[in-house]
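Q: Structure tokens for this one, please.
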Amino acid sequence: MLDVKFIRENLELVEKSAKEKGYKINIKEVLELDDKRKEELARVEELRRKRNEIAAKMKGGKPEQALIDEGKKVKDQLADLEKDLTVVEGRCKEALKAVPNIIFDDVPLGGEEDSVEVKSWGEKKKDGVDHLDYAVSRDWVDFERGAKVAGAKFYYLKNELALLENALIQFGLKKVLEKGFTFITVPDLVSSKVLEGTGFSPRTSDQSDEYFIEGEDLALIATAEIALTGYHMDEIIDEDDLPLRYAGLSACFRKEAGAAGKHTRGLFRVHQFNKLEMYVFCLPEKSKEMHEMILATEEEIWQELGIPYRVINIAAGDLGAPAAKKYDVEYWSPVDQCYRELTSCSNCTDFQARNLNIRVRRKDGSVEVLHTLNGTAVSLARTMVAVIENYATRDGKLKVPEVLKPYLNNKEEI
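A: Here is the predicted structure, written as tokens:
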């Protein structure tokens, strides 16, 4: 959520950013609601002042009936106004939550096709093995029984593929620990406050991607980012303790597995998968630096795995509400002869932190909202696709990437 004061002072920028992101918002209505909120608050505070004055006059003796009557009248008026204020504050907050974060100056304008390649690495193979056919033929994955138990796009991992997933987790964890991240496991369920606080507001009401628990104020997380954002909710962190770097391992649950127009084959897009996520809380002036650090860590992971990739600066129209800037890392698919999304990392500036009241206390005693960033270390399902496509051999074996051998009994192939 943006600061309403910032919106007032940067009206044109906020409206332009929202339009470029594809969000239809009414800034005039947002500011009118905030004006009404301030008017209601002023009336409430005036009545509270009167109430306190009357209470002070009543001390030390028997008050006159007129003073008692006036006190009762003020009390009733205050109760009504406080109810009105609560309603207006709620409407104002909802309106503010619909306003997406502004974009940085170096974010490309346009839709998904307008995203800009920043760099690339690795030699692109000319042919590869289809990961699903390969894994099924080796009895490594079972989508049929997954569908029988939970529905389409759920699956069982078996044998060497399950071991490969574990090896990727261990490798990714070693890498993020070397970079100063603290390993943390997270709840797979969060409250609506935390879910909304991360800022994943859909552009339209029918785009919700979360699984909600009926009868409970809980939803399954789509990424550890959501639970990690809420970790310091309603806290003030000392400046000397920043940056805080966390690496969260979790299952991720998403409805979008069969989304139209998306590459959906096999493990590439599923309803449930495991992921190791990087998350940073930092000072506002350090967030751009932290963003580049997260990206560099992601690149090191794919370079050490030997997976060819490119880095994309995501265009405004393909950014979600929280991000001011986002990089995608796309791996080279020798099967499809194109790049496909593998991981991403986003700078959400103060957008999420303001939603969840996460602040920093400066050395001079002042308090302000800090910045948050997130990035995928290893998204296990897609990483297994990339490894199979780039390392499977025609004779039915899978060469083990050098960095994974210590976690697979030093085998050369599986």
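A few notes: The first strand starts at residue 116 and ends at 121. The CA atoms of residues 27 and 364 lie 35 Å apart.
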